[in-house]
Amino acid sequence: MLFPKKILLDTNFLLVPAQFGVDIFGEIERLCSFKHELYALDKTIDELNTITENKKQKLKDRRAAKLGLAFVKAKNINIIVTDTDKYVDDIIKMMADDYIIATNDRELKKHLKRVIVLRQKSHLEMIER
């Protein structure tokens, strides 16, 4: 079965480089022997901004979110504009047929057929169900 060429990055996935020191972009290149494009939801950007601005968040989490935002810009990640009030995970589930979803969300992963996940806090793995 052919994988789609679009990879959707969840908020928690963009925190991985700072939290675990894993080069998610290098790992995606390693996993994907096909041409692909990276995407994030506008709501993901909103969540990252909220984390960076919330003084109640731990400093390391605010820094991780700030780095995630920097990667979005530096890696030219395409932003998908949503015009719904639905929760991010619900939007991702609706888009899952057209995208490979990159997430560490345990509950969300249960609902996805194609997903890229962090394994052993050291590398990424693609799972297809």
Number of strands: 6
Q: List low-confidence stretches.
A: none
Q: What name does the CATH topology carry?
A: Rossmann fold
Strand order of the largest sheet: 3-2-1-4-5-6
- β-sheet strand percentage: 15-25%
CATH class type: Alpha Beta
CATH architectural arrangement:
3-Layer(aba) Sandwich
Largest sheet: 6 strands, mixed
Per the principal axes of the C-alpha atoms, what is the gross shape? globular
Following the backbone from N to C, one meets helices and strands in this order, namely: EHHHEHHEHEHEE
What is the gyration radius calculated from CA atoms?
Answer: 14 Å
Distance between the termini: 11 Å
Structure in a nutshell:
The protein is of the alpha/beta class. It has helices at 11-14, 16-20, 24-31, 42-53, 59-74, 88-95, 106-109, and strands at 6-9, 37-41, 78-80, 100-102, 114-119, 123-128.
Structure in words:
It is a single chain. By secondary structure, this protein is of the alpha/beta class. The protein has one domain: 5'-nuclease (Rossmann fold). It contains seven helices and six strands; from the N terminus they run βαααβααβαβαββ. Helix 7 links the parallel strand 4 and strand 5. Helix 4 (42-53) runs antiparallel to helix 5.
Q: Can you lay out the helices and strands and say which pair or pack?
A:
Blueprint: E1 6-9, H1 11-14, H2 16-20, H3 24-31, E2 37-41, H4 42-53, H5 59-74, E3 78-80, H6 88-95, E4 100-102, H7 106-109, E5 114-119, E6 123-128
Parallel strand pairs: 1-2, 1-4, 2-3, 4-5
Antiparallel strand pairs: 5-6
Helix pairs in contact: 4-5
